């Protein structure tokens, strides 16, 4: 028996990853969608979670694939209906909002999983194990992609607090998982297009008891090949995650990593969360993004154009 789940918001990531992953999942089956537009899927569709639950009484869980704004209302509605909830990153629009979610789930007695898909990339766990017992001297993160490719025409991506931190938080989710001690933002420079409310690039310096130096370079304006790398220098060799964490190199030689996909692992973890009524709600990456905005110096750069 697989768990009946509904997607809420059928946009780019729902179609690229969630739908195919659920279709192949040994744990879940798609029982419906909550969508304003998706009428091409062969499952019940409704405008609200409550309306879908009326159509599909055995619905047990929802996976939120909407933009981060407005998540508290959706999570509240789902929990009130007795549903377990999985949430795309970033968890919310503000820290205060996201901090409520675990308590809401606990009060409702339902499972909650705030996901970090990059943390589930194949090379991340092997790197974490390789780092065990080593002293980290320096970490250099370069996370550079083209917003036009990954978020075509999405105006919400330029809402305050998002911009380049939408992909950047993926790198920070890996970083905070790798480090044995918390990280702090010490310096930040945020580069805002003259006509946008969110940065298109950012440079951060972080510190942690677990790493002497952490340098971070984010861009949302990368043409040609995309760069998603995390390089780690230790007292006993160096390692690099490439392709967003999908490939791992140790002392320049590629290392075999487990089979499987990021979203396959996320849904496997959500199945555990549902079975246990667990709460998996780590906000560490989100706090770093908020702190970068608190202490970041702002620079203005050229206006952004979707069709440049
Ligand atoms: P998207 O293409 O804009 O899709 C979001 C969907 O949410 C919309 O299609 C819409 O679905 C629904 N929605 C509800 N309220 C909305 C509103 N006020 N504005 C816009 N859409 C609204 O966004 P996405 O790229 O899939 O991103 C969704 C989430 O996944 C974000 O948190 C993002 O960070 C995360 N994510 C995205 C990617 C990526 O490559 N794009 C990768 C990993 C994670 P209906 O039309 O069905 O109502």
From TrEMBL:
| Residue span, Gfo/Idh/MocA-like oxidoreductase N-terminal domain | 5-110
Spell out the coiled coil positions from the record: none
Note the PANTHER family from the entry.
BCDNA.GH03377, DEHYDROGENASE
Protein origin, superkingdom: Bacteria
Q: Where is the signal peptide?
A: none
Q: What is this protein called?
A: Gfo/Idh/MocA family oxidoreductase
């Amino acid at each position: 028996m697989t768990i009946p789940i509904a997607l809420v918001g059928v946009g780019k990531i729902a179609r690229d990853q969630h739908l195919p992953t659920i279709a192949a999942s040994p744990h879940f089956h798609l029982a419906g969608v909550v969508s304003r537009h998706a009428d091409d899927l062969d499952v019940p569709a409704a405008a609200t979670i409550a309306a879908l639950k009326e159509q599909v009484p055995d619905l047990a869980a929802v996976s939120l694939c909407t933009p981060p704004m407005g998540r508290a209302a959706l999570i509240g509605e789902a929990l009130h209906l007795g549903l377990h909830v999985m949430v795309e990153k970033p968890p919310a629009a503000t820290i205060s909002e996201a901090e409520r979610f675990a308590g809401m789930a606990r009060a409702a007695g339902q499972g909650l999983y705030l996901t970090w898909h990059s943390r589930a990339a194949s090379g991340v766990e092997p790197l974490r194990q390789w780092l065990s017992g080593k002293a980290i001297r320096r970490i250099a993160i370069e996370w550079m992609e083209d917003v036009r490719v990954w978020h075509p025409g999405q105006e919400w991506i330029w809402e305050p607090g998002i911009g380049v931190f939408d992909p950047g938080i993926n790198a920070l989710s890996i970083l905070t998982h790798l480090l044995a001690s918390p990280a702090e933002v010490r310096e930040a420079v945020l580069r805002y297009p003259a006509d946008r409310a969110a940065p298109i690039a950012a440079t951060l310096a972080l510190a942690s008891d677990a790493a002497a130096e952490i340098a971070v370079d984010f861009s949302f304006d990368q043409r040609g090949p995309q760069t998603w790398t995390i390089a780690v220098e230790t007292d006993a060799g160096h390692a690099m995650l490439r392709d967003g964490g999908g490939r791992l190199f140790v002392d320049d030689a590629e290392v075999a990593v487990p089979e499987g996909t990021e979203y396959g692992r996320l849904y496997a973890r959500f199945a555990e969360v549902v079975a246990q009524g667990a709460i998996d709600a780590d906000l560490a990456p989100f706090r770093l993004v908020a702190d970068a905005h608190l202490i970041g110096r702002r620079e203005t750069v050229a206006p952004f154009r979707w069709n440049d």
